[in-house]
Structures are given as C-alpha cells and as structure tokens.
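note to self — DONT lose this again. spent like an hour looking for the file last time. sequence + predicted structure for the chain T wanted, 673 res
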Amino acid sequence: MAEKTEKRVTLAVENENGEVKEKEHLVEEADDVDKRANWGSQLEFILTCVGFAVGLGNVWRFPYLCFRNGGGAFLIPYFICLVMIGIPLFYLELCLGQFCSLGPIKVWRINPWFKGLGVTMLAISSLVSIYYAVIIAYCTYFFFASMQPEVPWKYCDEAWSTCNCRDGTQNDSLQDPWNGTRLECLNFTYEENATVAASDEYFSNEVLQLSSGIEDMQNLKWDLSLCNLFVWLLTFLVLSKGIKSLGKVVYFTAIFPYFLLTALLIRGCTLEGHMEGIKFYLTPYFEKLKKAEVWSDAAVQIFYSLGTCVGGLIAMSSYNEFRNNCLRDALMIPLINCLTSFYAGFVTFSILGFMAHKKTTTVDKVAAGGPGLAFIVYPEALAQMPVSPVWAVLFFLMMMILGFSSIFSMTETVITGIYDQFEDFMKKDKRRLYFFRLFVCFFFFVLGLPMVTKGGLYMLNLLDNYVGGFPLLIVGVVEIIVVIYVYGFSFSTSDTEKYPMRFLRGFLHFKTDIEMMLGRTIFTTVTFYFFGVMWCVVAPIILLLVVILKALQYEPIKLGSYVYPNWANALGWLTVLFSVLFIPGWWMYYFITKDISRGCRPRTTWGPSQMAKKDWSFFIHPFKKSRSRIDLRRFSQPNVVTPKRSLRSKSAPFLYTLDEITHEQSPDKVQDL
C-alpha cells in the first residue's frame, strides 16, 4: 500500500461580517504510487480525442451520406444534430470522466443502479475494436501490395479476374472483348451491364477470395491473418505503457493524416472532371430534407463520428487534470471532427468526378459507400493516375493511420474500464498490467479471426450495421436520463418535499460538479443555459425520436446483391441484445441483492480524484453562503474528516457544513475554528 503524507490545505471561512478568511488544516494524501496517471500536456489529450473521433468513417461514410441524402443539403441536419446532440453529449462525458477520474465502469458510482451501462459501453467498444482492426488489416494489405512498379489491380490478371473484368484495354464492341488472349473467354456468354472493374475483382477475388455467403465461411486467409496480427501487435506496443506512450504517438497519428489528405486533395483538383464531383458534393437538394431517414442518418453519423456512448471519452478524460478546461475541449474537438469530414468530402468527390469523366457517366453512377468506396472506387481511380503506386501508398498509409488513431483509444478504453475494477490486484505487481494489456490485444485478435476467413466480410458487415446503430442510441438515451434526471434521486418522503422541482435535481448536482472543476465564470454560466436546455429537453427527445425512426426504417441488411438469410439477421439482433442487456441485467441483480432504496444515490466514494482532493477537500458552495459556515464535499477516505449527512443545500445535497463535522476519526487533524 502507498504511504500517507500530511498536506496542508487552506480552508476558506466566512465570518459574521461577510468577510472570507483563510485558515490551514492538515489532511492526509497518498503518495504518487496511488495517483492516477495524467496526460503529459493538454495537447496530448486534445490530439488523442481528435484521433479517436476522426477515423475511417470520416473518409468513406460521411461523403457517401452526403451523396445519398441531398448533397450539400445534408450539412444542415448534420450540423443541427452536432449542436443539439453531439456537443452536449461530448461535454457531458468529458465532465463525467474528468470529475471523478474513473473509467467507464467505475464512473457509475454516480448511480450504482446503472453500472451495467458502463459494461455496455465496454462491450460496444470491444466489438467495434475487433472488426475495426480487420478493416485496418485490409488497408495494410493494400499498402504493401501497392509497393510495386504498377499497382496490381490496374489490369485484369488471369489469376483472379473473370471474363467480365474490365481495365480499359478490352474492346466490348467485339464478340470476344479479350481478342483471343484468354481462351476460357472465347465461348463465354456476356450479359449486358455485367462488366466489373479490375479493382472490384481484385478486392473480391484476390484480397478476400470472397465466398458465396455468410453460411459459407471457409478457411482462414493467412495473409489477412498476418495483417490483423500486425495491427494488434502494433496496438499492444503503443499501449504497453498506457497513456504515457499513447500520448506521444498521437502527435503523429492525429496530425500526419491531414498532410496526406491535403496532398490527395491537391492531386484530385488537378484531375480532369474534378469540378463535376465537387459540384455534385455541394449542390443541395432540399426536397430530401423532408425525409425522416435523412435526419436519422445525420444523428447516427454524429454518434458514429464523435465516438460518444462507447466509453472512450470518459476513459480519456479521466486522465485529465481536475481543473482542465473541458468546456473548451468539448466545443473544439467536435468542430474539428466535423470539419475534417467536410474537408475529406472534397477529396472523395474530386476523385469521383475524375472517375465519372473517365467513364463518360455521372458521379452518382460511380459513388459507393463503406468498404466499396475505400477498396474499390478509390483504388480504381488511383490506378489511372500517373505514378499510381506513389498515390496508392500515400492513400492507404493515411487510411492505416486514421484507423490506428481510433483503435488505440478504443482498446485503451476497454483496458482502463477493466483495470479500474481490479485496480488493487493490478497494482500489486507492475507486470500484471503489462501482461493484461498483452492478453486483451491477443484475445481481440483471436476473436477477429472469423472475419479474416473467405466469408469474413459478411460477418464484418453484419457487425458494422448492427453494433454501430441501435446500441449507441440506446446508451445515449439512458446516459442522459441517468446523469441529468436521476443523479441524487431519493425515495424518502422528506427528501421529495424539499425538492418540488425534483426533475431538475440531477442537472443541478451535475452543474455544481462542473463548477467545482471550471469555476463559476461568466462563460461557464452562460453556456449552462444552452447545455441545460439540451440535456434536459432537446437531446433526450431527439434521441428517442431517432430510435423510433430507425426501428420503423429497419430493413434486413445486404452486401451488394447478396441478401443475408434470416438467421444472420437474428444473429445481428442478438449482438445488439448482448450489448444492451447489461443495463437491465445489472439493475435486476442490484434489485435482488442490494438495498434498492439507496441504489440510485451516489456511493460515498463518489467525488473528485485523490489528486483533486488536496485542492478541493474544502469547497465554498457557490449557491448558498451561510454565516460562519463553509461547505465540505464528503470523501470516505480513511483518516480524513468524515462529515455527517446533510440535505440543506437544495442544489447540492451531497455538500456538508463545518458545523456537522465529526472529529471522532481524526481529532488531531482538524483544528477548531
């Protein structure tokens, strides 16, 4: 156990004349052994959050949603959802993690009933990390395959192409487009509009060797398995020392992709037809805004892009200094993320415009979403550029870095959540945490092996569709309700009588917590009017509406022309159920085994971190100053002042006054005032 050292803390006291005087007290604090690690600088935290939020979805998902949902008009619901849902939830999670310096499971000391919400967050992060690593493995494969004099998908190779493959050298006006160069195609019956790009067949037949469906998974592909192993090995090396090593790596992983994006944009703007693509990207079709699907897509994309409701923001902010300006971060990081998506759209559509020009067709005929955009459309365009291997290497390097910057934070989220639960066990030997990190990475690698089989893409697409939708929305709804409405709720009659406006109680408690960190400045006070409305009314209503709309719009998923069987869709729903079942499951467990009357009140250990207590053990309540009395936030630490219970302050029922302090545990540590 860590040794205890005495620390002098200044106590502010208001006398009868209203003057505030200071007096020193002795308290005990733990040595650095028990202190939680901190970021090396605030910039490390900002870059880590930017890297966590800015990922592969910014390059392939957002541009496709713009194309599908009204072009430039989609920016209207997108930024509305950013302001009304994204930023408020982002700020809520940053404040929650920073205030108590705990991971996504232990942070629910704020309300023990809903500890299962933290487990759900880790379950979602784990599932996303597993299939996200496989996508990075695809990028890694293409990255190394591009290191040749010519990119291998530029021409139709007999080893993997079919007779329908086209690379621009065939003559479709002839009965035999191959002009006798492929004997197996001499008697082949060609169907109209059945031709396939060389990049499409390279991805399906060479990289994946795609099977007929999810019911035919077949054996592992050793090359993709090695790429997946490389992803997890690098993830382990970066996370081997936790945020100390992660905080240094993000200087590269969060910044360098912007240089590559800029280089690709400059190259795209020099290609013929690029303006047609950009015009298609920015031209608004306002009639599409009448469709509910457009608004639900915007809301889901905000969740998917910002990384809210998966525990990552709580975990990363838990390593902040107690008084870090998380309000600034909550306004800046989401804006950077969304502007990055907008910026990446220019890169994407300049290249799509070039593709449409080369094929003498329209942009909507060549646009695609998801992996099809990253591994088929982009490679096809890159193959037609001069010095194509150079641009292919740069593009897939960018994709790898974007993917790694996200998976590093997602994996660290899982590690942080579990570590906090077994902190005492882990701290007995430093090697335990090291081997635990190794075990998590290896375990995730093993769970990802089914997705690097020949039918693995079907499984990956299934998880991407089901895990990235309903679970995030459900977590968002429950999280806001618990923190804003339930925080501090009590079943006692007297308590209810003291709080006639009890539906605002949680918000007022949370507001007090934030003011402990940020102070009661003009800026924080003004922003509370905005966040109060968003947290209490707007965000919950919008999230509930989006959940209902997504349920009404549900359709069985497809992959190209392949329709998933019913049992596969049932498997997807079981994945959703697995993720969210921890919420009611833990509640039922608590209902059966614990005292339910106190289950929704914060634990006695809820409060700022050990590092913060030396500065905030004694705190003047900003709403109510009483004569010759100061407020003290309770911390149930051994040998530290233990106050009696008090409910005098309507806005902060967990604050205590000096009149109510008992000196039984440490009379020598507290001087009478």
